[in-house]
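Limitations
The structure tokens in this dataset are predictions for the assembled complex, not deposited experimental models. Users should treat interface geometry with appropriate caution, especially where small molecules or nucleic acid strands are included. An illustrative entry is reproduced here so readers can see what is and is not provided.
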Amino acid sequence: MALLEVRDLRTSFKTDDGIVQAVDGVSFTVDRNQTLGIVGESGCGKSVTSLTIMGLNNPRNATSSGQAMFDGEDLLAASQDRLRELRGQKIAMIFQDPMTSLNPVKSLGWQLSEAVLLHNDVSKKEARDRAVTALGEVGIPKPGKRVDDYPHQFSGGMRQRVMIAMALINEPDLLIADEPTTALDVTTQAQILELMRRLQAKHGTAIIMITHDLGVIAEVADDVVVMYAGRAIEEAPVDQIYAAPRHPYTWGLLGSLPRMDVDTDRLVQVPGQPPSLLNPPAGCRFNPRCTYTMDRCRVEMPELAASPASAGHRDACFLDEATKSREPGRLLAGSGMGAG
Amino acid sequence: MSDDLLVVEHLQKYFPITEGIIFQKQVAAVQAVDDVSFTIGRGETLGVVGESGCGKSTMARCIARLLDPTGGKIIFDGVDITNLSRAEMRPVRREMMMVFQDPYASLNARKRVGFIVGEPLEVHGIGTDTERKRRVQELLEIVGLNPEHYNRFPHEFSGGQRQRIGVARALAANPKLIICDEPVSALDVSVQAQILNLLKDLQREFGLTYLFIAHDLNVVRHISDRVLVMYLGKVAEVGKGRALYDEPKHPYTGALLSAVPIPNPQLGRSRKAIVLEGDVPSPMNPPAGCRFHPRCPRHREGTCDVEEPALRSFGDGHEAACHFPLERWPMTVEDVRRPSDAVVAS
Amino acid sequence: MARYLVRRVLWALFLFLAVTVVTYVIFFVTPADPARLAAGQGATPEQVQEVAEKLHLNDPLWKQYGLFLKQLVVEQSLGESFVNRRDVNDIVLAAAPVTASLVFGGAVFWLLLSLPVGIISAIRPRSLIDRAGMVFVLVGVSAHPVWIGLIFAYFFGYKWGLTPITGYCDFINPSLGAQCGGPVQWAYHMILPWLTFMILFAALYVRLIRANVMETMNEDYVRTARAKGAPEGQVMRSHILRNSLLPVITILGMDIGLALGGAIFTESIYSLPGLGRQILVSYENFDLPVILGITVFATVCIIVFNLVVDIVYAWFDPRIRLS
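Predicted assembly:
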């Protein structure tokens, strides 16, 4: 049984301008020791998806439906108390900006101990010892001394390590990482991804990696879900997403990447910009920007359907098989992608 | 030399750090830019890449004279602009425009787009009112916006569109050089591609020269003819795009290149990444000798921590400042001189 | 942090000198004849001259200021009142406890009201409490303390006879001939003044606290705390309140310091013999030494309170404490 199984997740927000359907029917599974990558651009709903699973949306204006079965238990139906029990202990989350994600007036030791004490009946000293161990595990030098320091005394990369330490200190089964390296330099990013890989190997943690960076996805994910305007439009094992993508948006996404290992003169351009979620377009959400739009696309909403070649690869597009097999090779020629 | 639009010689920018209870005295300096030299030919794009704290943004601002350099020379189109007064800089600024990173902050939210794009024309007294309006509409069309949106406000546009407005503004007075300071970093990937294509098209059409600053090595490679790598205020390596990316000479360039995730799972997995230790040191107290030596997988004690390396030429404009430049790429275990866990096989 | 403090103390000293100089110069420039005032109504020109000599009023400004400063620092004396020759020190020290009672008591009340209302308004925006709170803020900020005082005095004091309307009772030692004394009487007489005085501040603080708490609630580290599974109460205590109320401390110190200079309106309405009332009386009589003395005292209060608040803030914020 999968560790996490999300079925038909929907979340909407009440705003002054109307109802925003931020997530509109997303389903996926994550297994232990596996990394699922959720990739998409801003406004696609990837962050909201994870916040919904954790129950961290503002109850005042957010409404969710669907199921998120974690180890057999539906998180969306669970009480706030039960969710609080799970958060930080069985499911942990790290966020994008390490500079603002730590409380500036509390020491690291205090914040790490808080994570321990919330879920374990141990003494303060024991919690602090665990904090020191955790800091050492993520590569903070002299953890015994630095545990009493404050966030502002650390660099961005170090703070993200601290966040990871805090998330993993209770050895959760699932770690949700929401753009954990976007705000970091590329060499620091490499360090953090390496750290996450190592810790996953050691603890067998399942990871959901949310990012807009297709390079990071290629490096860490086992399976990938591509989201657009609140819906999942393609899912596949990572190799197939790059070798044989089947949705025009994915082609656009892959083709618009500038590459340093390949010489391209003009990048594939996806015209226009992502739609407003207040008033999404009728039919397929991508149709206004799609160069392959047919009449059907403007009226009907495509559902995820498995590809005949591989059952694990699903896409939500009405295009015929021939086009889906041919176009990626043509569009992404020379980039090493789409070659099948 | 007349082929070079911009010549920068030994540029230096230090920010003083003062201390003192009543009277402030300078005790140290943040050496943001330290002895940087390079040239940009007409019609060329020089990409400047480096991580946070390397000084690339500071350098750009010095060249645009938004900051005053503490040392060195800047020669633009044959004229030494290093010490020109504000009034003297005015006609120069017409030829040197900037596009900024944040499409939300770099446009005045209270002004209409027509005003924003036309402001350079007005400031430099170009054309009459009607001529200006016509030119602005022409510019809006050139960058792919609807000229009828002349009277709209910035908040009515998306991030990518706002960046196009920024580009239109930069083009307005027909500059020779456009300094792009991380122009696509804040944009989504699909929009980024639009802006990069636009910049390339404009360069071809109007014969523009670009100084393109970014932290994304892929972007820099795509748009640049030559690339300059900066580390902690100094030039680590400079050379033609292909040469630098295919055969880097400086270990830092190597580390950067191997750290960039490649959107190709097989290639990525088979690659040996050089994972550097530690964080970038502070520009207030740069390490002695070669600034990169504490993190360098090839550093040798006695040389690298004592003597600062000079820029060495490898032919065809490819230069690197290193005592022990890389002999081959990708790096192998033998290339690591210092035993540490700095080289990781992934 | 030590360097930070030393700098603040030195700055405070400098401020003190600057304010006293400016005050002194203002009084020097006013078109009054202090000698005549000091000499009294029926003085002859020769007597006026004599007084002028005695009070050094014909000396150059800088010399007069120097003497004033010397008198202040060496003898710790603020001079004598022109009106009744009392030591200004005594006048100030007699009036200060009254103002202090009003201000500190008022501060306790305004905090007791604004903290819960501000915090609840921030947690539940647009709820009934929030809307009621905003109306209260509008009224409190717009209504003049004098008007509020009169209304209160009329209803609570006169019409319904719940509290006394005027007068002050000493907390500890009733002076000779006083009509009342002791803590109970003291509090009883202070109720209306406290209520009047606190309304404006409570309104301002509700707005301030609400804004600060709302802003802090959206910070990333609050989200991190929730993601760790912390219950709302702990999130509020350890993460939100600590960070959002720190700036309130700064402003509180400033406000108390300012108010100690003389809560003029409230003291007038209720005839409390505090610094505010005293300074009004001295203006009418053009009693320069008293005016100057109260100004100096008020300045010292403001400077000291600002310094204390800076220290407290620096202590509680590790970003400053450890630099």
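Some entries come with short summary sentences. For this one: Chain A touches chain C through 30 residues (CB under 8 Å).
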